[in-house]
């Protein structure tokens, strides 16, 4: 009561001192005597009022959110009912927000077993599944029918989603983060670069494969091929795209700057991959190491771009204009250094692969075929590589019985001596629903009904796991056996499965433009290495690990954690 009387007393005094002051925007009331009110009394007045206001606002926001969620639920349910959608298998969480799944993923990643974990999930819960992860609804699938929908027939329903802001510090605004008109524009710039006539004579590969061979010891020494093949890809890709190679294989042991670039490239990719796994919480992953790695990559790429642009403006660049050079065309389209750099980084990520030879039985058959087709000469053309049927089974997984006319759909590289069917360079990919839509199959007890995909939900598809399905590739699906492609595989049971059940280079409009270029590079490198070295084998002290159980590093691409050590003689 005393506080109330004091308040009335002060209010009365304050009212006598109110003044009208003419301001620039009209009358302004000043209450000068309010300065006489004790702070404690003001606090007594303000805190309850502020608390009630905040509480009311929070309640309104909560009610608004509930109402919006309810309306979305009603709308989605009606949509699902119209299309006959049924729930799919639910990956159960033991902790709130799926934090146990997050821990499981990071633990598996730290142990280089992430792909093994994902494969286990699909084998336990089915070919299409759902989970709540960090409070977000997410789905996974390895069903070719669903992949056809996401990547082709319902392409407009699925996009890159939040990938752009998640990956922007490294990728910027390049072809892998773009959607719509921007993506189409970048794609059209690149398409002529990968025309077969650009590398029919294999000249673009010859010098760099020779440089690779020069880095391999001939006295029975052991070499890790993985970093050498990264350099090979870097050299051929820069020569192909920029008109001039960085020649990282020349003096490979002493080129510190190029080594720094390769390490920074891997580190930056690793951070980007972890950011992608955290979905909307991607901003938790970053820091100085990530920024420094991006800066090293940018500096290296900028030097290449400057050199390429300078070369294009001099007489020395005349020879390269006999063919399409991506840097020249992009430079005409945009002289902005950042735009050029981001397009180049995107293409280099796609161009990376690790190719190796560690299966004696396969090597023997390959040597016999190479000898019969080209002998010991390095003077061969792309057409000569296509004549090698067994090489096509090993490198391209091509099938000659005519069930799939387009052999390029069934092509692969060797990774650690095992086909890209088993180790695709991009083993997991994600799309985000642009609007409420559905996957054609995976719902219901029999898994044959459509599955509702709400707007904003992420759908992951694992090519790695799909390529290991026994119903497609046989009970020995995890074994490296090129001869399987001469058999009547379950993969060939219908058109959709045969086309979408094997996707080492993605599919639909976003299929990898550099597919044939990568395959030709791999085939030529394999032929030249086998011509040069009569002995290629695993080191004697290295234990062969069962396929799929070796340690794998998953950044944006897949590589062998322990490298690819091979003995030559």
TrEMBL record:
InterPro entries cross-referenced by the UniProt entry: Cyt_P450, Cyt_P450_CS, Cyt_P450_E_CYP52_ascomycetes, Cyt_P450_E_CYP52_fungi, Cyt_P450_E_grp-II, Cyt_P450_sf
GO molecular function: heme binding; iron ion binding; oxidoreductase activity, acting on paired donors, with incorporation or reduction of molecular oxygen, reduced flavin or flavoprotein as one donor, and incorporation of one atom of oxygen
Sorted UniProt keywords: Heme, Iron, Metal-binding, Monooxygenase, Oxidoreductase
Pfam families recorded: p450
The protein's required cofactors: heme
Chain residues that bind heme: 512
Family stated for the protein in its record: Belongs to the cytochrome P450 family.
Protein known as: Cytochrome P450 alkane hydroxylase
Native organism: Glutinoglossum americanum
């Amino acid at each position: 009561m005393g506080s109330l009387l004091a308040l009335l007393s002060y209010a009365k005094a304050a009212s006598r001192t109110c003044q009208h002051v003419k301001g620039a925007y009209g009358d302004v009331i000043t209450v000068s005597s309010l300065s006489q009110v004790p702070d404690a009394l003001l606090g007594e007045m303000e805190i309850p009022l502020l608390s009630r206001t905040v509480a009311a606002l929070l309640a309104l926001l909560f009610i608004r959110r509930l109402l919006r969620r309810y309306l979305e639920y009603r709308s989605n349910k009606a949509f699902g009912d119209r299309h006959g959608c049924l729930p799919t298998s639910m990956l159960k969480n033991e902790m709130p927000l799926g934090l146990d799944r997050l821990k499981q993923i990071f633990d598996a990643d730290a142990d280089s077993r992430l792909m093994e974990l994902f494969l286990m999930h699909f084998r336990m819960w089915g070919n299409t599944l759902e989970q709540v992860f960090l409070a977000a609804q997410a789905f996974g699938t390895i069903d070719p029918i669903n992949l056809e929908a996401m990547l082709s027939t319902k392409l407009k329903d699925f996009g890159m989603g939040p990938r752009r802001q998640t990956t922007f510090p490294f990728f910027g605004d390049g072809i892998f983060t773009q959607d719509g008109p921007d993506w189409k524009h970048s794609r059209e710039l690149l398409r002529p670069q990968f025309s077969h006539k650009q590398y029919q004579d294999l000249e673009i590969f010859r010098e760099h494969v020779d440089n690779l061979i020069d880095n391999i010891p001939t006295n029975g020494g052991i070499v890790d091929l993985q970093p050498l093949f990264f350099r090979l890809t870097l050299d051929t890709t820069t020569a192909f795209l920029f008109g001039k190679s960085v020649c990282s294989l020349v003096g490979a042991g002493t080129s510190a700057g190029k080594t720094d670039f390769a390490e920074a490239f891997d580190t930056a990719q690793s951070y980007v991959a972890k950011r992608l796994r955290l979905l909307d919480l991607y901003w938790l992953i970053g820091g100085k190491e990530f920024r420094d790695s991006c800066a090293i990559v940018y500096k290296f790429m900028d030097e290449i771009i400057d050199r390429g642009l300078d070369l294009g403006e001099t007489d020395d660049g005349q020879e390269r204009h006999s063919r399409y050079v991506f840097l020249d065309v992009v430079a005409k389209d945009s002289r902005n250094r950042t735009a050029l750099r981001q397009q180049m980084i995107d293409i280099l990520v796609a161009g990376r692969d690790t190719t190796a030879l560690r299966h004696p039985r396969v090597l023997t058959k390959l040597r016999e075929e190479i000898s019969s087709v080209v002998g010991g000469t390095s003077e061969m053309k792309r057409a000569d590589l296509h004549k090698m049927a067994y090489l096509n089974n090993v490198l391209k997984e091509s099938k000659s019985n005519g069930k799939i006319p387009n052999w390029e759909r069934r092509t692969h590289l060797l990774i650690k001596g095992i086909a890209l069917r088993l180790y695709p360079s991009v083993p997991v990919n994600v799309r985000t629903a642009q609007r409420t839509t559905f996957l054609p199959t995976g719902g219901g007890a029999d898994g044959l009904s459509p599955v509702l995909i709400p707007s904003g939900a992420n759908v992951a598809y694992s090519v790695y796991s799909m390529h290991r399905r026994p119903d497609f590739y046989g009970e020995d699906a995890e074994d490296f056996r090129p001869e399987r492609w001469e058999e009547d595989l379950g993969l060939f049971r219908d058109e959709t499965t045969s086309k979408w059940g094997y996707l080492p280079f993605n599919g639909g409009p976003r299929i990898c433009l550099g597919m044939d270029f990568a395959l030709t590079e791999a085939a030529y490198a394999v032929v030249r290495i086998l011509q040069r070295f009569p002995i290629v084998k695993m080191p004697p002290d290295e234990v062969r690990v069962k396929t799929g159980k070796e340690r794998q590093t998953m950044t944006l691409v897949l590589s062998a954690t322990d490298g690819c050590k091979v003995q030559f003689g």
